[in-house]
Amino acid sequence: MSDIRDTVILGSGCAGLTAAIYAARANLKPLVLEGHEFRMGHLVSADLSKHPFVLNLGSDTLHARTLIIASGASARWLGLPSEQALIGHGVSSCATCDGFFFSGKEIAVVGGGDSAMEEALFLTRFATRVTLLHRRDQFRASKIMLERAIAHPTISFMSNTAVEEVLGVEQKEVTGLRLRNTVTGAQSTLNVSGLFLGIGHEPNAKMFAGQIDLDQDGYVTTHDQVHTRVPGVFACGDVQDRRYRQAITAAGSGCMAALEVEKYLEEHGR
């Protein structure tokens, strides 16, 4: 049984690395797998005294007594080359992370759901104008969130509008947006210093479908903070947190997952 790991951590973000630190302090010698694309074919729970978890990772197979899923969630992007080139240089998917850097500037938010409304409302604390862009004329946002955004004097709306290109790649900072009216096809330019994506996140948990519980949007369902329905399998960070998605909350849940792993191994033997 010497080749069986006490714990394997999937993910090397704030949650995964914090879990690794606390697991290492408990002398569990955790193995951390980087990245969020884990091609996991099988995740089997059984009597720990006989059969540990078996993790199929492409051509490699790992055996572990416990598993911490910290594979995160990826922001949805528009997929434009200019957008990708300017991430961190005026393009962002996190208003709470980067909003402060746009104090006194005009910015745009893309999206039509609650996420976009929340981003836009938060950004009014800093920006002089927030233009909310949406491809359609109907919004998915809840009535109360939409009404709040419409009532705010700093927020303006452009519906039936798609972003064709983010301007400023050569300058290495956002200088504006090239827009297209989705009804007429007419193009226009919007002068802004920042672009925020408010079109949601995609939890990196598809590989666990059918093995642990996922909610309707693909986030790992947990109880008692970090426990999944499979004994010995824990989840932390953005892969199970659809509300906060902050580094500090992810780190906190990573700590909790490691402490629960330590407790679990003490109760079930190592």
Structure at a glance:
The protein has 270 residues and is α/β, with parallel strands linked by helices. Helices cover 23% and strands 27% of the residues. The chain has two domains: 5-74 and 201-268, 3-Layer(bba) Sandwich (FAD/NAD(P)-binding domain), CATH 3.50.50.60; 77-197, 3-Layer(bba) Sandwich (FAD/NAD(P)-binding domain).
Please supply descriptive tags for the structure shown above.
16 strands; single chain; 270 residues; FAD/NAD(P)-binding domain; alpha/beta; elongated
Helix and strand layout, with pairings?
Blueprint lengths: L4 E6 L3 H12 L5 E3 L6 E4 L9 E5 L2 E10 L3 E3 L5 H5 L5 E2 L2 H4 L7 E5 L3 H10 L5 E5 L9 H9 L3 E4 L2 E7 L8 E6 L5 E4 L3 E4 L3 E3 L29 E3 L11 H22 L2
Parallel strand pairs: 1-2, 1-5, 5-16, 7-14, 8-9, 8-14, 9-10
Antiparallel strand pairs: 3-4, 4-5, 6-15, 11-12, 12-13
Helix pairs in contact: 1-6, 4-5
How would you explain this protein's 3D organization?
- By secondary structure, the protein is an alpha/beta fold.
- It has two domains: 5-74 and 201-268, 3-Layer(bba) Sandwich (FAD/NAD(P)-binding domain), CATH 3.50.50; 77-197, FAD/NAD(P)-binding domain (3-Layer(bba) Sandwich), CATH 3.50.50.
- Helices cover 23% and strands 27% of the residues.
- The strands form four sheets. Strands 1, 2, 3, 4, 5 and 16 form a six-stranded mixed sheet that branches.
- Helix 1 packs parallel to helix 6 (247-268) and helix 4 runs parallel beside helix 5.
- The longest helix is centred in the last third of the chain and has 22 residues, at 247-268.
- The radius of gyration is 22 Å and the shape is elongated.
- It starts with a strand and ends with a helix.
